[in-house]
Amino acid sequence: MRGTIIALLALIVPSAALAQSCPEPLASARRLVLVTADTLNSTTAAIARFNRHTPGAEWEVAGGATSGLIGYRGVGWAHAFRRFAKRGEPIKVEGDKRAPAGFFKIGPAFGFGASQVANYVRVDSSMVCVDDVSSPAYNTITRRERIGPNIRVENMSRIAEYRRGLLVDYPTDRKARAGSCVFIHLQLPGRIGTGGCVALPEAQLEALQDFVQDGAVLAVLPRQALARFKGCLPQAN
To answer: Hey, is 51 helix, strand or coil?
Structure first.
């Protein structure tokens, strides 16, 4: 019996130790949306969903893979994950039109119309996302009347791509101009990239909204960086 217990521990402990070495919030995630760009300058990416029973367990495919749009200029490492960047790889800054590379919790669904989705955020005419680095409200969603008329914002109800989407818990840094207003949103016909978000066709976006209701993590990575997170990501990648 003692030998059996030791053998089981030998199988379990490496997985647990490996999970602890993975960056958060990936390490503790049980659902994952993996967005993989072929290069740092790609404007499209492969998007796949995975789940696992416990942190440290093997990832399992959850639904068919699809493709979507990322930044008009590709991806750049989010300020919070810049330690993973190699020499010459871009770090995301405000206005660079790059999607942020890294790992981020996916928040509630949002959109223009009513919805029965849990914690849904309905976008109305006064809802804005602040992309002005001079404002203490930088990278927050608020109402225009709370910040005054002179702060630069995205008027969310006027942006057609925001008719349906998901909030992303994007950690930023105002002093470093580290980027703002990062979402997963609707991909409109004819578009070839985004301002720094991830965009999906409506059917795939609707399925993703259902998938993430119990919590999920968004991973955005160039293919060349996947090996830097060996053991943290699905083995197929």
So the answer is: strand
Is-cis flag, bond preceding 189, omega within 30?
no
CA-wise closest residue to 171 among 35, 80, 75: 80
How crowded is residue 65: how many other Cβ atoms within 10 Å of its Cβ?
Answer: 13
Q: In the Cβ-directed half-sphere of 70, how many Cα atoms lie within 13 Å?
A: 29
- Give per-residue pLDDT as tens, 65-93: 999 999 999 999 999 999 999 999 999 99
Whether the Cβ atoms of residue 100 and residue 87 lie closer than 8 Å to each other:
no
Comparing CA positions, the residue from 62, 91, 44, 51 lying closest to residue 198 is: 44
Closest CA to 80 of 162, 168, 167, 19: 168
**Considering the entire predicted model, what is its pTM?**
0.90
Q: What is the rounded distance in angstroms from the CA atom of residue 180 to the CA atom of residue 66? A: 25
- For residue 195, CA distances in Å to 9, 37, 95, 100, 159 come to 47, 16, 8, 11, 12
